[in-house]
Every structure is written in C-alpha cells, then in structure tokens.
Amino acid sequence: MDTWLIILIVVVAVVLLAALALAMSKRSRVAQARKREQAREHLQEAHLRGARAEQEQALADEQAARARRERAEVQERTALAEQEARERAARAGEEQAAADELRAKAEKIAPDLAADRHRDRQPGDTVNPDYPEGGATRR
To answer: Which end of the chain has the smaller Cβ count within 10 Å, N or C?
Structure first.
C-alpha cells in the first residue's frame, strides 16, 4: 500500500473521531441543558407547592386556634352557668329553710291558722299543687 493512502486513511479516521467527539459533546450539552431546564421546572413547582403548603398550614393553625378559643369560651360559659345554678340552688335552699322556719313559728303561734291554710302541705312541698315541679322552668 502506498504511503499517501495510509496517511489518507489515518487522516480520515482522525477526522471521523473528531467529528464523533464533537457530536458526543454537543449531545452531552443538549442533554445537560434539558436537565437544567427540568431542574428549573422542578424548583418552580417546589416553590409553588411550598407556598401552598405554608398557606394551608396557616389556615389549619388559625382553625385550630379558633376551635381552642371557642372551646374555652364554651367551658367558661358552662362554668358560669353551673356557678349561677349552684348559687340559685343555695338561695332556694335558704328561702325554703326560712319558709319552713316561718311556717313552724306560725304553727306555734296559731296552730289552727297554719293547718287551715295548707292542710296537705309538708315542708319542702311546692306552694301551688297544680305545679308539682314548682312552676315554669327552663330545661
């Protein structure tokens, strides 16, 4: 084989290898650019989802705080109503005791008058027998 033919084959092989390397390099750059774009899209989506998550968390925290506040208000109203009921029951007991005491004094002073007025009445009975629970009550 001639020398110039060998040189030509070597030059063609080197040119082909250079072209192949160039094509691989360009393909690599294109793939890298595509990956960078995909990474940018992922970062943008992550930012949007993070913002939505923060907003949802803030709403959830606000809702939980509102529920705690409402529960505290209900507990406070319940405690107040129970206290008022205890005070009212205590006053009723005091009034009943005073009534029983006055009734007993009236019987001592004028037994016939007390017997005529409330023949069937026992201590602790309601005043009006038509309303055995003591009248109108809220339940």
So the answer is: C
Q: Minimal CA–CA distance to 119: which of 133, 75, 111?
A: 111
CB atoms within 10 A of CB 7: 10
Residue 21 has pLDDT above 70, yes or no: yes
Q: What is the 3 state secondary structure string of 54-116? A: HHHHHHHHHHHHHHHHHHHHHHHHHHHHHHHHHHHHHHHHHHHHHHHHHHHHHHHHCHHHHHH
Looking at this protein, which amino acid is placed at residue 88? R
> Which residues, in sequence order, are CB contacts of 36 under 8 Å at separation 6+?
none
Q: For residues 4 and 11, what is the distance between their CA atoms, to the nearest angstrom? A: 10
Length of the chain: 139
pLDDT number for residue 111: 83
Rounded distance, CA 114 to CA 81, Å? 38
Q: How far apart are CA 59 and CA 53, in angstroms?
A: 10
This prediction has a pTM of: 0.48
Distance CA 57, CA 54 (A): 5
